[in-house]
Specification:
single chain; about 230 residues; alpha/beta; Rossmann fold; five-stranded parallel β-sheet; three-stranded antiparallel β-sheet; globular; binds adenosine monophosphate
Length: about 230
């Protein structure tokens, strides 16, 4: 199965994406993670990308599009979950073209919907447990509020990710995401239109609820869509 996942930073896209990846045994192809790997390894591509990433801007399409499409061809033979790409309308068109050329099917497009204010609060309230980054803690979400200043699951020390507190960078990322003319939502709606033409399936889930509720809704909608 080949899947695209959309959702603003703070919507739980990463969490739901990991669950889908495990359940359907998909190669998780995450553009942001590929960039981070390049930066860690000090490659030329990594050096170029870092300038943009640090400012919360998109890495130019000339760098991003070939990099992602190549990874998809190499690692995506037995099913993939593409996460973080496409992020604008141009990337969406290029992806669709490449899929046609490769004879790859796009089975499903998932959009996790969340309003901008809530998404921002979620990012800024996020606290990372030193013992396990998968212990969810957020000072703004009652269901996963830390206990005092400690992890609600294991009592571990909580840290703040520095980029989670950079309001200007969060706003910039959200400006790109919520742009329905040329940005990420425009890319999502490009696929929604293809779904209306019967070329793929498009699923929308409400990202404002807790992880388990979203997961259940997502799985039942996937099951219905793939019938
Ligand atoms: P993420 O981990 O998805 O938040 O990505 C981190 C950063 O990598 C983004 O803020 C962008 O600077 C860059 N990036 C990731 N995916 C793309 C993409 N599809 N197009 C351009 N830049 C991207």
């Amino acid at each position: 199965m080949n899947v695209l996942i959309f959702g603003p930073n703070g919507s739980g896209k990463g969490t739901q994406g990991s669950l889908l990846k495990k359940k359907f045994n998909l190669a998780h192809i995450e553009s942001g993670a590929i960039f981070r790997e390049h930066i860690k390894n000090g490659t030329e591509l990594g050096k170029k990308a870092k300038e943009y990433i640090d400012k919360g801007e998109l890495v130019p399409d000339e760098i991003t599009i070939p990099m992602v499409l190549e990874t998809l061809k190499k690692q995506g033979k037995d099913g993939w979950l593409l996460d973080g790409f496409p992020r604008n309308i141009e990337q969406a068109k290029k992806l669709w073209e490449a899929l046609q050329e490769e004879g790859m099917k796009l089975d499903l497009v998932v959009e996790i919907k969340l309003d901008r204010e809530t998404a921002k609060k979620r990012i800024m309230g996020r606290r990372i447990c030193e013992n396990d980054p998968n212990h969810p803690n957020n000072i703004y979400i009652d269901a996963i509020k830390p206990i005092g200043d400690r992890c609600r699951i294991c009592g571990g020390v909580l840290k703040i990710r520095s980029d989670d507190q950079d309001e200007a960078a969060i706003n910039k990322r959200h400006d790109i995401y919520y742009d329905t003319k040329t940005g990420t939502l425009a890319a999502a709606y490009y696929f929604k239109k293809l779904a209306e033409e019967g070329k793929t399936k498009y699923i929308e889930v409400d990202g404002s609820r807790d992880i388990e509720t979203i997961k259940q809704e997502l799985l039942s909608k996937i099951e219905a869509a793939l019938k």
